[in-house]
Design brief:
By secondary structure, this protein is α+β, with helices and mostly antiparallel strands. The chain has three domains: 2-138; 197-287, Helix Hairpins (Orthogonal Bundle); 296-453, Heat Shock Protein 90, CATH 3.30.565.10. Helix content is 53%, strand content 16%. The chain contains eleven helices and twelve strands. Helix 7 (302-316) runs parallel beside helix 8 (340-356). The longest helix has 57 residues, at 197-253. The chain is rod-shaped. The model is unreliable at 403-410 (pLDDT under 50).
């Protein structure tokens, strides 16, 4: 289409230029021959009687006294130019402006130059037929049309062969797409060695297929984690449910009759119910975090949260020395944008983890500070520490570094650190664990400060 438009515009431009040049040539010749021809024809008209006057021009004289116009036509020409009456005051006569008229039957064009006799007795018009110009332009138009059609046909043929050759890899793309539709996500399109659009398309599709395969792998891994999560949750709930059912069954059968035994059974049912309630709340929280629901964020001072956690830890276990420190010396406010309740849960879980996994009397430090647009909170203990191999799994759900601590043995449900990791990640941060110098474990929370988020 573009080629056709370009050829059409070229043909039009060429015709216009050629027409202009031919008309300029005709006008120059007509201007040069007008007055001599008019004088010669007028002289011959007065001196000859009968017969025609040989000439290549049509000459028409229009007397100013009102008598009828007279003149001659070119030798052998049957068509006459339709020349209007020209007065002495006509601008075309005064300025010698050349103009174009048609023949009396409209079949041919004539180029006319007006003038006046020197004595002012008449105006005259000398006209020449544009048959030669029109014929030349028509021939050129036919020639350019034929050339254009030949060029279009050649380009179409070459383009057809070129497209077939260039798009030959599309068959391979189609075969690869069919294989992927059949479930084989490992298939890839053979990449051509050329650097054309098809090769670029093949590379882009291969990159997309790699991302799709990776996305499916991530999805499968996520589904596997979810299945494991459900399995672990069911396993965790099975023990307290069995205990509650067992004590209820004993009470229903009358096996527990003594007041002290009844009180003990009711206490155990209450403890297991509380434990199940906490587990369900933790599971619901993790589900909400996984769904990435937005938090109600506001300015939160980590230093205040840490100070509250220190007071709570001291109240729970007076045998420990729990201190609040500044990471870079002085303790200063460290403000971030976040959900205060969730961030408080992060600090509480980390301090509770340190209390639960260290002997009574073990010191704990909470350090808070900021640097380079990042806020940091560290919870350090001086207990047995975390094995480097197990350290990579401590933030996994239902993972317990000490398998003997759990369910009915005073341990947690294995979700505390998983909740910490999920909340920190939802706030755009990260959490890790390292060894405390001298022994113990240090949990480090890294979050963006309020200034860096704005």
């Amino acid at each position: 289409m573009l080629l056709l438009v370009a050829l059409s515009l070229t043909s039009i431009a060429t015709s216009a230029v050629m027409r202009g040049q031919l008309m300029d040539s005709v006008d120059r010749d007509l201007n040069a021959a007008a007055e001599p021809t008019a004088s010669q024809v007028l002289s011959q008209l007065f001196n000859r009687r009968g017969g025609g006057i040989p000439t290549n021009y049509a000459v028409l004289f229009m007397p100013t006294d009102g008598s009828s116009p007279f003149g001659v036509n070119p030798t052998g020409e049957r068509l006459h130019p339709d020349i209007p009456t020209l007065a002495l005051t006509d601008p075309r006569v005064v300025n010698g402006t050349i103009f174009t008229v048609s023949s009396t039957d409209g079949e041919m064009r004539w180029r006319v130059v007006p003038g006046q006799l020197r004595d002012g007795s008449a105006t005259f018009a000398v006209a020449v037929a544009l048959r030669g110009v029109d014929t030349t332009l028509q021939r050129m138009l036919r020639f350019t049309t034929l050339i254009g059609l030949a060029v279009i046909a050649s380009c179409a043929l070459l383009g057809w062969f070129g497209v077939r050759r260039a798009f030959r890899p599309l068959t391979q793309i189609e075969d690869t797409a069919a294989g992927i539709a059949g479930g084989d996500l490992t298939q890839r399109i053979p990449e051509p060695t050329s650097k054309d659009e098809v090769a670029s398309l093949a590379r882009s599709l291969n990159a997309m297929l790699a991302q799709i395969e990776q996305s499916f792998a991530v999805r499968e891994a996520s589904e596997e984690r979810m299945r494991q999560f459900v399995s672990d949750a069911s396993h965790e709930l099975r023990t307290p449910l069995a205990a509650v059912r067992g004590y209820a069954e004993l009470f229903r059968q009358g096996a527990v009759t003594k007041p002290e035994d009844v009180a003990s059974a009711m206490r155990r049912i209450e403890d297991e119910s509380i434990r199940m309630g906490g587990l369900v709340e933790d599971l619901l929280l993790l589900t909400r975090l996984d769904s990435q629901r937005p938090f109600e964020k506001g300015p939160v001072d980590l230093t205040v949260l840490a100070a509250d956690a220190v007071q709570d830890a001291r109240a729970l276990d007076s045998t420990r020395q729990v201190r609040l420190l500044g990471l870079s010396g002085d303790l200063r406010p460290t403000t971030i944008e976040g959900d205060e309740a969730r961030l408080r849960q992060v600090v509480t879980n980390l301090v509770g983890n340190a209390v639960n996994h260290t002997p009574h009397g073990t010191d704990i430090e909470i350090a808070v500070g900021s640097a380079a647009g990042r806020a940091k909170l560290e919870v350090r203990d001086h207990g047995p520490g975390v094995d480097p191999v197990k350290a990579r799994k401590v933030f996994e759900r239902f993972y317990r570094a000490d398998a003997s601590r759990g369910r009915g043995n005073g341990g947690g449900n294995g979700l505390g650190l998983a909740i910490v990791a999920a909340i920190v990640s939802a706030h755009g941060g990260r959490v890790g664990v390292a060894a405390t110098p001298g022994g113990g474990a240090t949990f480090v929370v890294d979050l963006p400060t309020a200034n860096s988020q704005s």
